[in-house]
Amino acid sequence: MIQIANLHKAFGKNKVLKGINLGFEKPGITAVLGPNGSGKTTLIKCILGMVIPDKGDILFQGKSIEGKWTYWDSIDYLPQIARFPENLTVRELLNMVKDIRNRNTNDEHLLQLFELKEYMDKRLGNLSGGTRQKVNLVLTFMYDSPLIILDEPTAGLDPVALIRLKELIQAEKAKGKIILITTHIMSLVEEVADELVFLLEGNIHFKGSPNHLKRTCQESNLERTIAKILQQKEPPTQFSANGHRALSMETFESGNF
Question: What is the pTM assigned to this prediction?
Fold first, then answer.
């Protein structure tokens, strides 16, 4: 569904993406990880057309997205910080989004799932951060799009809502969808992700399953694994999930792979 080829992006002298090559074609859940400044948010915004790359191309269903916007209708996106007029009620916000997208929705089920019925006529400005996030999740999942992008989806959620979100993500995967998640919550990645892409300083540092990365780094949990990588800033030297030797940073930068 998505192919990313030789993607470069700089903001002034700051080179954020340095020749990213990625593909997301099979149904499943991919976590895009990396420390602040690694390029993951810029990568997501390039896929969404919100940031224009300096070099490279992004194909959606085999066609370049450059200068095109209709593909947005095939994507459901949860931004890290969603801003809406605070004087709107939850009901008014939902109706506004429905009018804009003009598609069938599944909002009634989601409103019950996240226990939002009692908040329908409350203004957004009067809601807690966690309740706002639940509203944002309803807005994201209420359309049946083949690609879902979630940027820090767990922010402010209570334990019950977090469990329901994990179940919802798994249910969407079972429908054959591609789901991309950026998060700092490694327990979420371990529970739901089929694959992870770890970015560091604008390069792909690792691509494979969470379990493979843990084995490669000889750690028992993903949080310790990521901490080790950040301390060493060296790519894995063992083998990738497909049996090939893991690629070094020099290999990625030279293109010899």
Answer: 0.86
